[in-house]
Amino acid sequence: MSLRYNNTRTHPSHKIASKYVILHFKKLLSSAIFSSSSEFLCRNAYKCIPNWMRCDGQNDCGDGTDEPASCRLYYCTQPGLFQCHNANSSSHCISPTLLCDGVPQCMDGSDELNCERHTCLESQFKCQNPPKCIPKSQQCNMVDNCEDSSDEKACRKLNHAVPGL
Predict the structure, then answer these.
(1) Are 77 and 90 in contact (CB under 8 A)?
(2) Counting beta carbons within 10 angstroms of the beta carbon of residue 135, is it exposed (0 to 12), middle (13 to 18) or buried (19 or more)?
(3) Residue 135 lies in a domain
(4) Fewer Cβ within 10 Å of end Cβ, the chain: N or C?
(5) What is the pLDDT of residues 82-117, one digit of tens each?
(6) CA 77/CA 60 separation, integer angstroms
(7) Cβ(93)–Cβ(107) below 8 Å
(8) What is the phi/psi pair of residue 94, to 5°?
(9) Looking at the domain assignment, is residue 41 inside a domain?
(10) How many domains does the chain have?
């Protein structure tokens, strides 16, 4: 005896198989999303947000995983600011553009921690040694803004290759 299926009936084993495929696909998708060291991977939304947007009182992930109950009080007056680790007022909040810039703005220096693993903003260039973020406008400006001159190294090679520069 053979079983016949039409468009209106589904065998129970097909439902189980499709649930397995969906779960397997979700696992594959989440493992394919790589967050940088300065990003937080949203558990169910399959996207990454900057670390400083975690625990800022806003559900940036859409699934709430960036705002767990364990978050400490957020003192900043607007979401998206970096809150210094020792914050106890809104004066201990800084713009993300100041993270790993080589100058501690937080009294505890938390804005300059783990800079070797920090990913600079798209509008910034990352100096190699010591690792710090500078505005891209300071890259290739014929001024060594990085202590190791890494902001000018590739530019010098290009400038020497172009006649008349």
Answers:
(1) yes
(2) middle
(3) yes
(4) N
(5) 999 999 999 999 999 999 999 999 999 999 999 998
(6) 16
(7) no
(8) -135, 165
(9) no
(10) 1
